[in-house]
Design brief:
With 267 residues, the protein is mainly alpha-helical. It contains 10 helices and 2 strands. Strands 1-2 form a two-stranded antiparallel sheet. The longest helix is centred in the first third of the chain and has 29 residues.
């Protein structure tokens, strides 16, 4: 890669790392559109661009999640009991998500990305108050919720926060705890999804040089360096913002990215 591209990817990683720590979204919602632009500019095969952007984004979350969750854990904000209940379903769902994506063409995959993100943003922005008696479901319900979160996250290359944060806040979990717990859930999502993307991607002929399955390794390396550096700063900032402001930042960030990916699907 030339120096200009390296600098651009480092800046992207830094911005995404900060946002991941701030919003608990793993950074994938931000990464996929930008990696799509970069791979398209490098003239990667059009039918592989979206799949590789999603896979590369998901792989970076393994590193961003570890950095972000350390900062949240230091403040006692991660609900580890919730992580343990959701993680088994998440591991299974995160393997299935990339398999579903491998069956879809680029336009359909981009459209699915945009729709899922827009729906999650709407749920957060409406901010409808949950019933005072509503709580997180029992262990079987948490396993099922984890499976859905993992499948959607693996499908669109995200850390799952766009589903898990609204889910937890709807069950009366404080937004700051929901963001912190979502950051911890990003690692099992990314691990299972990355292995799945490598496995299914290795079956694809004529992958570009530097690819491991659907993952583009040079972009993964550079972006991860930038994101790991800034994720703790985002996590610290999250605990200084009022709840309502944090929800608005979360929602409007997702709306802008949903619009871009829907545009890509239609074009």
């Amino acid at each position: 890669m030339d120096i200009t591209l390296i600098i651009a990817l480092l800046a992207l990683g830094a911005a995404v790392g900060f946002a991941a720590g701030l919003l608990g979204i793993g950074g994938g919602m931000l990464l996929v559109p930008f990696i799509t632009m970069i791979l398209a500019a490098k003239h990667f095969p059009q039918e592989l661009v979206i799949h590789m952007a999603i896979a590369t984004s998901l792989a970076t979350i393994m590193f961003t999640s570890i950095s972000s969750v350390r900062a949240h854990h230091a403040r006692g904000a991660v609900l580890w009991r919730v992580v343990k209940l959701l993680a088994p379903g998440i591991l299974i769902g995160s393997w299935i998500g990339p398999w579903i994506g491998a069956q879809m063409d680029s336009s359909t995959l981009a459209a699915a990305f945009g729709i899922f993100v827009a729906f999650s943003a709407t749920q957060m922005l409406i901010d409808k108050k949950p019933a005072a008696s509503r709580d997180l479901p029992s262990a079987p319900g948490m396993f099922g919720a984890g499976g859905v979160i993992g499948m959607l996250a693996g499908l669109v290359g995200a850390g799952g926060g766009f589903v898990s944060v609204p889910f937890m806040t709807w069950c009366n979990v404080r937004i700051h705890n929901a963001v912190a717990t979502s950051a911890a859930l990003g690692f099992p999502i990314a691990l299972a999804g990355t292995l799945s993307n490598i496995y299914y991607g290795m079956r694809v002929p004529e992958l570009p040089s530097g690819s491991l399955g659907y993952i583009y390794l040079p972009a993964l390396l550079v972006i991860s360096i930038g994101s790991v550096t800034t994720a703790p700063f985002g996590a610290r900032t999250a605990h200084k913002l009022p709840v309502r402001s944090l929800k608005k930042v979360f929602a409007f960030t997702l709306y802008s990215l949903a619009a871009y990916m829907l545009y890509k699907a239609l074009s």
